[in-house]
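ESCALATION

Customer reports they have been waiting on this structure for their group meeting. Please prioritize. Original submission:
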Amino acid sequence: MSTSNAATTSAAASTPVFAAQQTTPVPPTKRKVKRKTWQTAIWLVALIAITAIVLYPLVWLLFSTFKPNAEFGQNPGIIPDNPTIDNYLKVAEGIAGVPMWKFFWNSFVLAALAVIGTVLSSALAAYAFARIQFKGLAIFFAAMIGTLLLPFHVVIIPQYILFNNLGLVDTFWPLVLPKFLATEAFFVFLLVQFMRQMPRDMDEAARIDGAGHIRIFWAIILPLIKPALITCAIFAFIWSWNDFLGPLLYLTSPENYPLPIALRLYNDQTSTSDYGATVTASFVALVPVLLFFIVFQRFLVDGVATQGLKG
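Update from on-call: job pushed to the front of the queue and completed.
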């Protein structure tokens, strides 16, 4: 009797273990997908071809800086027949009595002030639209977005008349002052969308501690929107560095010209254009933009990666 009870007990004890072992799901094994050699070769050739197409203009520009002026129009290839560095020497001397470093300095000043003014004013305006509730918020925001549909050419004449009456023509003020007034609706809209993703609990907690809007904006909002601010700074720098129409309208003295206007002088000074110097000056003007983008491109990636995160 005791023997049968012991057997029954041992069988009952072993049954749940066996059942648990049977019901435990087995994780599926991951199969390693091996790409065939010919598929890898096709992808590699396609990527090389696309890279060559994208980089061809830059490579052509680089090698053309070593071409004599007589080879332009006669040698359509990339490699110059008689390479020379005379174009760099000519560009270093400057033009119209102004050294090249002066043009670089003017472009740098305009670009730096544009970055500071655009980032600061756009962030303040975006904070007002995204975190403060006031009457007419939707109307003002819609009006700001509507300015994106307004071409710059529509306001050229009124702006020029205004700055001319103020005696600011042939100075940097017409090109810099609007940047500090949040006139770039694209950047304001970008920052507004970034700020709206942040929970308002942080604002409420800061107000309980006695913080005002300035304190909240400076200590809480700005550190969290750093990727978006750097994105705005990159585009503001590139747009200001490459701006041609604005300086052409408001600047008349060669010593105030930025690089885009200085490049025109190589084609307007005589009846024959100096293509070698023009190409060389264009390449030299492109180098700072490339370096600026290469240094800050990782912040663009961070901005895209963190744009969907909250908290």
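Sent to customer with the following note: Confidence is low (pLDDT under 50) at residues 1-22, 307-311.
Escalation resolved.
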